[in-house]
Amino acid sequence: MDLSIIVPLLNEEESLPELCEWIHRVCQQNNFFYEIILIDDGSTDGSWKVIEGLAVLNESVKGIRFQRNYGKSAALNEGFKAAQGDVVITMDADLQDSPDEIPGLRKMIVEDGYDLVSGWKKVRYDNTLTKNIPSKFFNGVTSRVSKIKLHDFNCGLKAYRKKVVKSIEIYGEMHRYIPVLAKWAGFKKIGEKVVEHRRRKYGVTKFGWERFVNGFLDLLSITFVGKFSKRPMHFFGMWGTLFFLIGFGFTIYLIISKLLDPINFALTNRPGFYLALVSVLIGMQLFLAGFISELIARNAPGRNSYLIEDKIGL
Ligand code: UDP
Ligand code: MG
Predict the structure, then answer these.
(1) Atom 19 (ligand 1): residue with closest C-alpha?
(2) C-alpha 32: how far from its chain's center?
(3) 149 alpha carbon to ligand 1 midpoint, in Å?
(4) Domain boundaries, the chain
(5) ∠ CA 194-14-73 to the nearest 5 degrees?
(6) Which of 148, 155, 116, 149 is nearest to 132 (CA)?
(7) Helix 232-260 × helix 271-299 angle, to 10°
(8) Measured between alpha carbons, how far is 190 from 109 in angstroms, rounded to an integer?
(9) DSSP output for the chain
(10) Whose CA is nearest to atom 22 of ligand 1?
């Protein structure tokens, strides 16, 4: 199979027929052997009925239906597990991404050797204040932290080599950081392609203001997990030692001062006394957190699952 098109959707019944018809037309023109995997992420409108209807009309259309709304990341993750195509393309269901981009994206994977190509909505048709400006900020920060040069991490339209989607797991709301996950899984050739963006034709956006807070917290977790999930003590231990040393330093200073001047030196009047107390406590807390994380990391599933690139003689 040449292509898997993965479409996560939540309450998008009006868009689906038009979307599938359009994808079908593009794939036919290019002679692609393809599948469309529609993941209904707990829609409460008639989306699933529409999908059932589309699957009858076109056997390339496949569907997965969640029992309830689990979020876009979960939907993509299920789609990735099911995908069979050599190239996997994700796109939003709301017709904001144009299926006309499919051949170009596929070409970059197949001919130019990219592992992942992210769409870049250079001209964007969303609300400037609530979407476009925050998203510039988000992309700037993510790009700096991850050292991946992309302008539009969260673009729904992306293309992947099959191996990439089988190697990464998207949980929580990590769909914003798929390029980062791919990079950490060892895929180096990550590129972008300017894509056409369109105004939402039907329905409403599913992401509100919470996405700023969530997105920021996810960036922190993803940075931490990427760096320290296999060796948490290196993180907690470092800060723990620092705090402990600060506390220890103050304690020594206080003891010496007290010994030199036992009568006039009032311990509890000194800022150093409180700093010593707090620092030692925080240091100990950090060490405890480190030990517990180590125990968890040791027992976590997948602790020895490495991605093996190649083998000889085995
Ligand atoms: N979506 C989903 N589950 C959710 C929220 C959104 O599958 O919990 C789908 C939605 O149907 C659409 C895509 O994710 O196909 C992008 O969502 P939306 O267009 O609302 O985001 P925006 O373009 O406004 O950022
Ligand atoms: Mg949209």
Answers:
(1) 205
(2) 29
(3) 24
(4) 3-229, 232-298
(5) 55
(6) 155
(7) 160
(8) 10
(9) --EEEEEEESS-TTHHHHHHHHHHHHHHHTT--EEEEEEE-S-SSSHHHHHHHHHHH-TTEEEEE-SS---HHHHHHHHHHH--SSEEEE--TTS-B-GGGHHHHHHHHHTT--SEEEEE-SS--S-IIIIIHHHHHHHHHHHHHHT---S-TT-S-EEEEHHHHHH----TTGGGGHHHHHHHTT---EEEEE--B----SS--S--THHHHHHHHHHHHHHHHHHHTT-HHHHHHHHHHHHHHHHHHHHHHHHHHHHHSTTT--GGG-HHHHHHHHHHHHHHHHHHHHHHHHHHHHHSTTTT-PPP---S--
(10) 205
* Alpha-carbon span 69 to 48, nearest angstrom: 13
Q: Which residue carries 């807390």 as its tokens?
A: 285
* 58 token code pair: 């076109």
| Span 279-304, pLDDT tens digits | 999 999 999 999 999 999 888 776 66
Residue 72 in tokens: 């876009």
Ligand 1 atom nearest 10 alpha carbon: 11
Is ligand 1 within 6 A of the CB of residue 182?
no
Indicate the pTM of the whole model: 0.85
Q: Per residue in 90-148, pLDDT tens?
A: 999 999 999 999 999 999 999 999 999 999 999 988 877 777 888 888 899 899 888 99
For the domain covering 3-229, report its CATH number. 3.90.550.10
pLDDT one-digit tens code per residue, 168-209: 999 888 899 999 999 988 999 999 999 999 999 899 988 877
Give the integer Cα–Cα distance in Å for 303 and 88: 27
Using the predicted structure, report yes or no on whether residue 305 has a pLDDT greater than 70: no
- d(Cα 21, Cα 254) in Å, to the nearest integer? 77
Neighbours of ion ligand 2 (CB under 5 A): 92, 94, 96
